Amino acid sequence: MLVLTTGGTIDKIYFDALSQYEIGEPTVPHIFKEVGFTLPYHCDSLMKKDSLEVTEADRELIRKRCEEAKESQIVITHGTDTMCATAEFLIGVEGKTIVLTGALAPSRFRETDAVFNVGTALGAVQSMPAGVYLAMHGQVFRAGEVWKNLETRRFELIQ
């Protein structure tokens, strides 16, 4: 399994002196250790960006890395604001099950959805057929069929 990290809230660190967040090192390896995940995986940090800063060139890099990966199961951690756009950009990558996930609160916080979302993504990447998916809050959505409702802070099917 390949884990690609791009930054986003899941990897943010809060600096009291600066009163702002910055993207830190990927937290997925720490989450895996905490929950006892033992399957072999490789983690590759592609970038450390807030998803609002992700460009088309960044999406092309993510897609290229997915296409070139020897692994057929890929989890991508991504900021939630533009995760749907990145997922749609990856539609058509052949022979891979790709699952994007993120968090609404940094994984380093005591109260966070990060561990649950990463766990959902791990289950999805191992059980879903080839394609591109988003895993958030216990639900798995097919790319192109989901949007982030900013009012409710939830991902929902496009109607």
Automatic annotation (TrEMBL):
Residues annotated as the enzyme's active site: 9
InterPro entries: Asp/glu_Ase-like_sf (IPR036152), Asparaginase/glutaminase-like (IPR006034), L-asparaginase_N (IPR027474), L-asparaginase_N_sf (IPR037152)
Residues annotated for substrate binding in this entry: 51, 80-81
Gene Ontology terms, MF aspect: asparaginase activity
Domain of life: Bacteria
Domain L-asparaginase N-terminal: 2-149
Protein name, UniProt field: Asparaginase
Species, as recorded: Rubritalea profundi
